[in-house]
Amino acid sequence: MTTQEVGRPRRRKEDARLLTGRTQWTDNLTRPGVLHVMFLRSPMAHARIERVDVSAARGLPGVVAAFSGRDFAGEQGSLPCAWPVSEDIVIPDHPPMAVDEVRYVGEAVACVIATDRYRAADALDAIEVDYEPLPAVVDMNEALSPGSPKVHEAGNKAFSATITSGDLDAAFRDAPVVIDRTYVQQRLIPTAMEPRAVMADTDGESFTVWSSTQIPHVLRVMLAVVTGIPEHRIRVIAPDVGGGFGSKLQVTAEEVLCLLLARRLGRPVKWTESRSEGNLTVHHGRDQIQHIRLAADADGRIRGLQVSLLADMGAYLMLVTPGIPMLGASLFNSIYKMDAYEFNCTGVFTTKMPTDAYRGAGRPEATFGIERTMDELAAELDLDPIEVRRRNWIRHEEFPYTTIAGLTYDSGNYEAATDKALSLFGYDKLRAEQADRRDRRDPVQLGIGVSTYTEMCGLAPSRMLGEANYGAGGWEHASVRMLPTGKVEVITGTSPHGQGHVTSWSQIAADALGVPFEDITVLHGDTAVAHKGMDTYGSRSLVIGGVAVVKACDKVREKARKLAAHVLECSPDDLDFEAGAFKVRGTDQSRTIQELAYAAFTAHDLPDGVEARLDSDATFDPDNYSFPHGTHLCAVEVDTETGMVKIRSYVAVDDVGTVINPLIVEGQVHGGIAQGIAQALFEEAVYDADGNLLTTTMADYLLPSAADLPSFTLDRTETPATSNPLGAKGVGEAGTIASTPAVVNAIVDALRPHGIDDVRMPCTPERVWRALEGVRR
Ligand code: MCN
């Protein structure tokens, strides 16, 4: 008997190598004669480039070459935006190195290539640049006002989009309750443990690009499109990648330029960012102003919801920049039923680093907006926040349910997840303690925050992505090869960078083929090895890529069945497959799948129509997204004298359908919650009025450490998805999406008796203290 692998808390195969330093980060790789490039970056948020003179840098020791943007004009193309979300969208030209104008601090204007990165960095000082300053445009509202300086000739509006459903006027007309709030999603800087790094090399004909990227397959296509180098001459390898969180779902200036420099110089060229360079120039996340109006009946039933967003695009549209706020378009309504919905979004250009995907991408913003608003509705009606949610959510017997925003949620059970979370949290006891502290006027008040969320992940059905004008498909591919000795290679189009696909895919294949977990290896992240793929983002890998593995294994098994029937001289229908062997029913005759793999290798005696080798491949493209959901509860202690917030307890009950590996799922939820708490309490990218980023170091941009976070209590309910044969739903972003509003709701709950109904994120001690001072005066 083999043990069932799916559902087993396996420790990750990847970790021994990662934890013992035998990792292949891009920066650890080298090539004979490698050169290092460093970029001179604009110190101005907005300026015309009058002159760039790199000649003095060229003569310095160790310097091999130096170039300005103009030296690459005509060759460097324009960085791509692959998600034109509306007809009116403006996609400005985006040269990897600026030629005529810079539009954010940190934009590359010139580069030095030298024998080591320190000489290259020193030589940057010798480059002369004359800038003619132009006005910075930092604030989104000002950017849209009539007299504003323009970021681009075409103006500061990147796009506008509206979605309407139901009769909003009727919903708001005579509504007994209208909640009207504005929330700010501050700008965030994704901070992966491994900074971005890239190396490119050529043999004079073909090119290899090693990059710390989430998207080797997409990158290969885009590098070909941007540079004009034929796609079949480019190989992209994502070696070990130390985190991305969306920030490596990008086609960057540095990737394009390393490739072009390798071509121009005929030598390998490498770049690794410093942390400060990373803060300036890794694409940023969030940065939205949300205006939300909600109409409800006197009993708390929602009638209608109107959302108006301003979304800061920064200076240019990068790979999926405009799509990010639009990913939230169908989710502000969340798990709630209502009669009418309207969503408006305006994308705004400013002279700041472009924004793009950051863990959750559009969905944390939507969840925050609605979950904060639900708490305001509860407060307005003097209802318990859980009760107001119960009165509005889709009940488990109503699935599949088509929401007001047009998505069909296939499955879920919000009651079960919430009940479990409430009991683990000790909700009633904490409410009693809260009442007691309020009565005693304890300077340390207790706040309780809830967030009941769903999200849409597993990006996914190509048909739906086409309707949204997304520039790529949503399928995923896998190959499964049984080797002559009975071991297995799984080749996946997903590109893990911390999610443990090697382990999860091994568990899936072990069950499907009946082979030991240890006998499986998983190859990924190299376009010459995994020749088809759509990569890893949008919590898509399991529900699409993992399912492709299942399908490829099914085909391998069916081929093995034909071969077994031939060898055992019986009908394929007379064979039972059990524990990795085909057995002739009612006899003791059998063949293991390993024996059949060898027979398929020698091909001495194959049945007609069966080709040599036991291998197969499959692609999967589901017909719907996956919709994980759950309930997060947070208790905070807020010191009303100092503004200090301490998270006392945090309970998360998530439903991600069938679980492949509970340990990995827990790890994903842990990391996700940490990132959501970080937005609520710690992180913010700050620009001054001149467009200078003030948070360029980790001393200024506050990342939480383990010591800043409580131990989380995690549990699950399991409502299988109907959109894929595994019954799984994605988990990679769920924790981030759910957690931020739970924390802020808790803080506001603590402060509500003081007359406070909002604290802007991050809710630092200073912000909390100032909010209290404001009402004390
Ligand atoms: N899993 C499971 N059972 C489920 C769901 C998932 O066992 N029901 C497992 C999967 O098998 C996989 C892992 O959980 O090993 C994550 O799966 P999935 O939800 O499909 O997410 P992806 O693999 O597509 O990862 C992308 C997601 C995103 S979008 C961001 S952002 C993010 C995240 O993953 N960035 C991460 N988690 C991260 N984790 C690390 N360490 N580093 C990042 O950069």
Automatic annotation (TrEMBL):
Record's keyword terms, sorted: Molybdenum, Oxidoreductase
Superkingdom of source: Bacteria
SUPFAM superfamilies the UniProt entry points to: CO dehydrogenase molybdoprotein N-domain-like (SSF54665), Molybdenum cofactor-binding domain (SSF56003)
Molecular function in Gene Ontology: iron ion binding; oxidoreductase activity
Family annotation (InterPro entries): Ald_Oxase/Xan_DH_a/b (IPR000674), Ald_Oxase/Xan_DH_a/b_sf (IPR036856), Ald_Oxase/xanthine_DH-like (IPR016208), AldOxase/xan_DH_MoCoBD1 (IPR008274), AldOxase/xan_DH_MoCoBD2 (IPR046867), AldOxase/xan_DH_Mopterin-bd_sf (IPR037165)
Transmembrane segments: none
Residue stretches making up the Aldehyde oxidase/xanthine dehydrogenase a/b hammerhead domain: 20-135
Cofactor: Mo-molybdopterin cytosine dinucleotide
PANTHER family attached to this UniProt entry: ALDEHYDE OXIDASE 1-RELATED, XANTHINE DEHYDROGENASE
Protein name as annotated: Carbon-monoxide dehydrogenase large subunit
Organism field: Nonomuraea maritima
